[in-house]
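Message: Just now I want nothing more than another pair of eyes on a protein record. I am handing you a single protein, as its sequence and its fold in token form. As I understand it, each token names a local backbone shape. Take your time, and here it is.
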Amino acid sequence: MLFPIFVVVTIAEIAVLINVGELFGTWPTVLLVIITALIGSTLLKQQGWSTMAKAQQSLVEGRSPAVEMLEGVVILVSGVLLLTPGFLTDGLGLLGLIPWSRLYFINHFLEKNAERVFSKKNSVFINKVENSETKKTNKDETIEGEFWEDK
């Protein structure tokens, strides 16, 4: 599924770059791509630090930073899109850096995938601690962990 998306996006980016190049010329088009990358990287840095501060504030207040973590994922994807040369990916990347549109992306993702993410029948967490003392004293590989089953 990803391969056709990459092919279509690449062809669309080339078509847009050719059209903009014919309209404005080669060097203004290259300069415009560089300017959008600079603006995007500045926004990326600012929004990344802002989201990090919000996540730390949530932790200090004893709340889960789940929304801030999802915002971080959107910011990361936006950064990758901004690194990709072209106007379509830059536009989508810039949308991911604007707080209100970023929350729209997160809400849309959760609406489509909440049932799949939050409806697991069995959840297991295993924490296996290995250090030199336990390896020497315990020969039978004891696994310490928690298990719970949602009903």
